[in-house]
Amino acid sequence: MSNGNLDDHLFPSSDNQIQKQLLSWPQRKNIILDVAKGLAYLHHGVKPGIYHRDIKGTNILLDAEMRARVADFGLAKQSREGQSHLTTRVAGTHGYLAPEYALYGQLTEKSDVYSFGVVVLEIMSGRKALDLSSSGSPRALLITDWAWSLVKAGKVERALDASLLRGGDSPNSNPKGIMERFVLVGILCAHIMVALRPTILDALKMLEGDIEVPRIPDRPVPLGHPSFHADGNNFSISPVLSAPKLQPGDTLSELSSAPYVEINS
Ligand SMILES: Nc1ncnc2c1ncn2[C@@H]1O[C@H](COP(=O)(O)OP(=O)(O)OP(=O)(O)O)[C@@H](O)[C@H]1O
Ligand SMILES: [Mg+2]
């Protein structure tokens, strides 16, 4: 695919070959809608449905027109008729794994919806799914926790990439209300509680404005909540990642001693 992968466009590094330009709002919107439609096909357009299991920027490829395709079916699994979920070896990538899948190996279509939500938040904010660079506290910051905190504080706008807000309120500026709606859908899709996540079909309808985005439901107090610590840390770390300090390259198997876990970082 001539424009490589999404991750390289969101997070350009000096060794990337592609000529980098910040993605525009129409490009970001189309990429998100393309990925949602690709997932809707996998989950609901084929029988039995397919779980991709590794939705993330490097597995989303961009063509000459910057339209997106879901790629890399190396971890994909077929669902089973009549079974609400599969219990499986965990595989995937840190920062994109749904908590119930990472912890219990419980795989449903909502695991892909979670990863999709994380990718939506990366695209809208220009931040990485999991930021391990912080040397202070918190030591690891999940984009889902960061964005959720902003929404709960009534500051959704702050989750938007600064480049999307240039132009202020001029008639030519990007539509802030729609961009904020995309952030809210991302947060809802990446909700900690599996039952509260929409299906990808409903997420697509929300993105396209066909149905309302419900109020973002509250979630259990994460283990990283200040009430568990005395250091006044404002951000919460999801239970999955709150305990040991993560380093790039750590695998969940090293953290949990489970011999059968394969996680990319
Ligand atoms: N058809 C393609 N066109 C352009 N780039 C591609 C194509 N197929 C794969 N790539 C790119 O090649 C690189 C290697 O892909 P690969 O799937 O092996 O690794 P990855 O996506 O970084 O990690 P993972 O193994 O977790 O999927 C990635 O940057 C991917 O985006
Ligand atoms: Mg890949």
Automatic annotation (TrEMBL):
A Pfam family of the record is Pkinase
Question: Where is each Protein kinase domain found?
Answer: 1-228
Q: Which UniProt key words apply to this protein?
A: ATP-binding, Glycoprotein, Kinase, Membrane, Nucleotide-binding, Receptor, Serine/threonine-protein kinase, Signal, Transferase, Transmembrane, Transmembrane helix
What does the record say about its membrane topology?
A: Single-pass type I membrane protein
Intracellular or extracellular location(s): Membrane
PROSITE patterns for this protein = PROTEIN_KINASE_DOM (PS50011), PROTEIN_KINASE_ST (PS00108)
Q: Which SMART domains match?
A: S_TKc (SM00220)
Membrane-crossing segments per the record? none
Top-rank lineage group of the source organism: Eukaryota
Q: Kindly report, in one word, the top-level EC class recorded for this enzyme.
A: transferase
* Cellular component annotations (GO), alphabetically ordered: membrane
Principal subcellular localisation of the protein: membrane
The catalytic activity, as recorded, is: L-seryl-[protein] + ATP = O-phospho-L-seryl-[protein] + ADP + H(+); L-threonyl-[protein] + ATP = O-phospho-L-threonyl-[protein] + ADP + H(+)
User: What is this enzyme's EC?
Assistant: 2.7.11.1
Q: State one molecular function term (GO).
A: protein serine/threonine kinase activity
Protein known as: non-specific serine/threonine protein kinase
From what organism does this protein derive? Populus alba x Populus x berolinensis
